[in-house]
Amino acid sequence: MGSTLEDLPAWAVDFTPVEADRELARRSLVDTLAVTLAAAGEPIVARTAGLPPALRWAAIGHALDFDDVHLPSTSHVSVVCASATLAAGGGDREFLAAAGVMARLGTALGWAHYRRGWHASCTAGAPAAAVAAALSLGLDAAGVTRAMALAVPSAGGGQRAFGTEAKPLQVGFAVDAGVRAARLAAAGATADPDALAEWFELVGGEREVELSGPVVPGGLAIKLFPCCYALQRPIATARLFGTVPPEKVASVQITVAEPVLQPLVDGRPRTGLEAKFSLPYAVVAALVDGFPTVASFTDEAVARPEVAKLLDRTTVHALPGGSGVLAGETTVEVRFADGTSERRTRTDIPAGTGELAAKVAGCVGTGRAAEISSAGWPDAARILAAAYPADEPPKSEERPCR
After folding, report:
1. d(C-alpha 77, C-alpha 25), whole Å
2. 254 — phi, psi (to 5°)?
3. Of the candidates 224, 249, 227, 210, the residue with the CA atom closest to the CA atom of residue 106
4. CB–CB of 342/365 below 8 Å?
């Protein structure tokens, strides 16, 4: 018989990283810190003022939907585990062990869990955040187990939140719950260790997990574009056309596998947040802007007249079969006003790892890029505490995005 869910706490406590693991942790920390600082102008900063750092940092870090993704678990591992680790004073080992737990929990939940509308970043995230904080607080395997069990009541989240501020907020709730659970466990709070297994079965997980292999099986995918990962390949496909003047386009036809549409919103986006989950908008933005940036996903960008006209001429076709947001392939066909047409297809997705330095500079500016890229865990915690202080008073007024 293989390893089971109940073996995860002991695995996390005994985990010893190698250099390749530490490199993954460094990359994840830099990416998470950069995208969290890049969201400084978002309304969620004011809305979370005065709330606990774990909640605040995770929600702000996920606000742009620019943080990395673990594809096998369909979850945002780093923003959850890094925020919990930073809030609890941990480092590489604590982050990596928690990331390994979250990746395995999310993978065991599987695509069926995601297809039913769960947000795996929250369901797998709350127990994983508890692991990060429990290890940072020095708990043993029994303590980690109690912390994970105490996080169970908050281990949930739904995809109806996508396209609204509820999505990053529910990630923040999950991280805060995990850190709070670990602190309660450290203070001696008791919990039934079977609560975790019972919850896992209720949400459709398989109790057998694979503990061998890399710390994060499948690795972590860094995003090049600040939107849902299901849109990364369609944008990359559209970019093969270069910048296209909207007045020269008669229509745009997009063909994807049906599972790609699972996390995406229907209809035309009305806001920048909705645009981050809109397939037609993502492709149109790539055609108009060339390389979509944070500025491409604002309310103002969505309202551009040339974009609205091009969206009127855009159609999405879904092919049955497959699973996961990278199922099948993406085809974009542009039919021009002069009667000609061109088609581009991609089956792959560009890796963002080699572009991380450019991404960091784009997020924080070239002046701070070196500081952010070389930051260790204590440095990152200080930077976030200065940018988003815990004692900042709550604000009720609305704040513009930029």
Report:
1. 11
2. -115, 130
3. 210
4. no
As given in the structure block, the two tokens for residue 319 are: 């092919």
What pLDDT was estimated at residue 395?
61
Q: Write the pLDDT tens digit of every residue in 222-262.
A: 999 999 999 999 999 999 999 999 999 999 999 999 999 99
Residue 333, strand partner residues: 253, 343
| CA gap 294, 335 in Å, rounded | 28
Please, which pLDDT band fits residue 396 given cuts at 50, 70 and 90?
A: low
Residues 6 or more apart from 330 whose CB is under 8 A from it? 233, 234, 237, 254, 255, 256, 260, 345, 346, 347
* 8 Å CB contact between 70 and 105: no
Q: What is the pLDDT of residue 48?
A: 97
State CA 108 to chain mean position distance.
18
- Is the dihedral angle over the CA atoms 288, 289, 292, 293 positive or is it negative? negative
Over residues 149-188, the pLDDT tens digits come to 999 999 999 999 999 999 999 999 999 999 999 999 999 9
This prediction has a pTM of 0.94
Q: Which of 109, 144, 125 is nearest to 15 (CA)?
A: 144
Both tokens assigned to 180? 């709070």
Structure tokens that stand for 351 in this block: 């890796």
Tokens of 37: 């600082």
* CA–CA dist 154, 148 (Å, integer): 10
Closest to 275 in 3D by CA, of 325, 231, 329: 231
Q: Any bridge partners for residue 342, and if so which?
A: 334
φ and ψ at residue 353, rounded to 5 degrees: -60, -45
Query: CA-CA distance, 1 to 82, in Å (whole number)?
Result: 32
Burial class (CB in 10 A: 0-12, 13-18, 19+), 340: exposed
Pinpoint the alpha helices (H) of 212-290.
232-238, 272-275, 279-289
Domains of the chain (ranges plus CATH)? Answer: 5-223+354-387 (1.10.4100.10), 229-346 (3.30.1330.120)
Strand order in the sheet with 314-319: 314-319, 249-257, 330-336, 341-346
pLDDT tens for 351-387 read 777 789 999 999 999 999 999 999 999 999 999 999 9
Q: What is the mean pLDDT of residues 316-332?
A: 94
pLDDT band at 266 (very low <50, low <70, confident <90, very high): confident
